[in-house]
Amino acid sequence: MLGLQWGDEGKGKIVDFITPHYEVVARFQGGPNAGHTLEFNGIKHVLHTIPSGIFRDNTINIVGNGVVIDPVTLKKEIEALKKLNVDISKKLFISRKAHLIIPTHRLLDAASEAMKGKGKIGSTLRGIGPSYMDKTGRNGLRVGDVESKDFLARYKSLCDKHCELLKQMNYPCKLDELEPEFFDGIEALKALNLVDSEHLLNRYLSEGKKILAEGAQGSLLDIDFGSYPFVTSSNTVTAGACTGLGISPRHIGNVYGIFKAYCTRVGSGPFPTELNDATGEQLRKAGNEFGSTTGRPRRTGWLDLPALKYAIMINGVTDLIMMKGDVLSGFDTLMVCTHYMYRGKKIDYMPYDIVHEDATPVYEQLKGWNTDLTGIQQEKDFPAALSDYIAYIEEHTGVPVSVISVGPDRVQTIERKKMSMAYLS
Ligand code: IMP
């Protein structure tokens, strides 16, 4: 289950919604840059590291090897769950091979962004990029290392290296406040179920258990396929589930692709259909488009079909899930981008470079609807214009829109077509 745009599509809500059909939910990439929001019984929860199946009684939740973990954030998340009487002891497992975010990773993130000036990525500053850099640079610390006797020495050695780097970047390596909470976080991490998750997951598969791989961020932020360099540092696409969990591609079943009925983006980078006007503001207000991790206002724009089709192609999406249909209520007309004008030509696909060159959207105009959708429980009650909007998307993408979300609560979710509920098996 993945986001098909620039993140914030509503993955947390949908994972929580479909979790009763799965025994296991596993996060495979990203880290506390994610903010997965779930709402039920009038309470709102935001998860950053822990999979969104944690609120279901019989679901096992695994943080896979592809994730980067900040022990400080994880500890806070666990404390928040404890306050809600969620017992994690038997249902949360952390991969020993997941990499750690240490305090200097966060400082390096900030220093790197400061150096980039106007060209900054707009990172969440959670240390994600520097931690993945250490992973691929073969310097990183992993969760399993906290169990070793010389963890402190290894930490110190990496930390010293970082401080040297920070000095060169003219950025203070100030750790007096950061280190105590980090080591508290490490103690809390040690008390969790640290596992060889690739073995555990493959055992579950051989036992016939259904596994839901929960993506974070979105396909257009993928390190390979996103609008590089304005991307995150992991593979957010389907293939990332294989490397981030240790599961063979032949186990991938259905791929649920989540998209908003319009588009949003936080941080810098190209956004062809962005609306810098009153309509964009209307979307931001109606959709409460403010980051769940950073609180930053999200950039807003119309639905972008070339971008959506690109994400569907890379991920092999079998079912589409459309979020926030309710936010489009009240617009007389809706614009949908079907093509770009690019290098003087009209194209219907995502070209190589939309960072240095303009991809100007070509729109088709569709009829809007005024009906409040938030109380609708069945498809037969949809206004005709909404049904037309959905049919239009299906026609252009060739993929069924199986679920429509019309509000943040679990109950505001309409299954239009039975999803085959295939799984990693
Ligand atoms: P980083 O992953 O924190 O380094 O951020 C890189 C880019 O991805 C920035 O534009 C962020 O705003 C964006 N980003 C990272 N995580 C998320 C997310 O969970 N939702 C939306 N955007 C994200």
Key descriptive features of the protein:
alpha/beta; 425 residues; 5-stranded mixed β-sheet; binds inosinic acid; 5-stranded parallel β-sheet; 30% helix
How is this structure best described in words?
The chain is of the alpha/beta class. The chain has helices at 11-18, 71-83, 103-116, 128-136, 151-168, 178-190, 197-206, 238-245, 278-286, 305-315, 384-397, and strands spanning 2-3, 24-27, 36-40, 43-47, 60-63, 68-69, 92-95, 99-100, 193-195, 211-214, 256-260, 263-265, 299-301, 303-304, 319-323, 333-342, 345-347, 360-367, 401-405, 413-415. The strands form six sheets. Strands 1-11-15-19-20 form a five-stranded mixed beta sheet, sandwiched between helices. A five-stranded parallel beta sheet has the order 9-7-5-2-10, with helices on both faces. Helix 2 (71-83) crosses helix 6 (178-190) and helix 3 runs parallel beside helix 5.
- Helix fraction, binned, reads 25-40%
> How many strands in all?
20
Supply the number of helical segments. Answer: 11
Average pLDDT, rounded to a whole number, is 95
Helix vs. strand class: alpha/beta
Largest sheet: 5 strands, mixed
Distance between the termini: 15 Å
Low-confidence stretches: none
- Small ligands present: inosinic acid
Strand content: 15-25%
Provide the spatial order of strands within the biggest beta sheet: 1-11-15-19-20
* Radius of gyration over C-alpha positions, nearest whole angstrom: 21 Å
Globally, the shape reads: globular
